Amino acid sequence: MVRFYYFYQKLSIMKTLPLPFISRLTLAIISIIGIGYLVKLGQSILAPFFLALLLALLFLPFSNFLEKKLRFPRSLSTMFSLLILLSSIYLLFFFFGTQLSSFSKDLPHLEKQFITVFNDLQRWISRTFDVNTNEQFKYLNEALNKLLSSSGIILGFTLSIFSSGLGFMFFCLLFFIFILNYRRILNRFIVNVFDEKHKGKVEDIVSEIQNMTKKYIMGLIIQIFIVSIITSIVLSILGLKYAVLIGVLTGVLNVIPYLGIVISMLIACFISFATGSTSTTVYVFLAYIGIHAIDGNLILPFVVGSKVKINALFSFIGIIIGEQFWGISGMFLCIPALAIIKIIFERVEGLYPWGTLLGEEDKPTKKKRRVKISETITLEEKD
Prior knowledge:
With 383 residues, the chain is mainly α. The protein is 80% helix and 2% strand.
């Protein structure tokens, strides 16, 4: 009787769940698994395609200006945009190439300096605290020597970020040309997929998503520049070697929330510890905490805005999934991807709760902050 009662209870619960809900849930799970498999399978194509899409949205206002104001043909405006993009990429690679070349030459010297400073610190601890650390630090020294002599981990990590391969760059530029040149066809296709009665609403949503995404990407680039400049100035004041290189690297890695600033801080502290004193390393550590606080409380709200900000939980999950699917490029592209998904969800009926789940907690009573720079320039916190 007891078993029959539990069976009856389960059966009654199943009856309360409508079949369409179970069907939709099953279909959603299968779709997520299928999309994940396709994303992993098409890494070599989808990763450069998504980056090209972001770059095309960034260059869209410039291309429209050339076509509407200067009467350029679509193909010519696309080629001009491509030329500016290639020039920017060349300058970026030239800067990092020259800086990393100088850094690679000094790397053996940095290794020797680091080992010397580390041994001095070891002897100071042993003398001051009367601790016999010979056996403990013996294994640590061996591990440290292997770490430093392996192949320059810092240099290798930095190079792996900025050299995604000729194939990746080729496909990215190719997709950039196609997306920018055939953007109206792609836009018309997205609108025509839906029924006639929904076309007006779909056009408004697509237009709003494009504008929000363009503003987000532009804000992200401005954020990279500001963080790079602030970090370079602060590290130069502290007398850190390769201050500009580390500053620009910090700005770029800052795109990866939380993890990026930690990686750049460890690199800066390593170089500071190898070339300077322990007190300088502490100052560098404190400087990075201050830079992160300025970025989170001033730069991000005023430049990027909070509507496209992803909360810490889903940022961390996105970084892990992005790295698993697309490696280092996935770690960089996952946050813009989540921001675009959040923008779409918040503007499509029935998906709004999922969009709010990705974002930060709403604070309706909070007033927008304003910072007056001069008599004519006032910065206001963005939505």
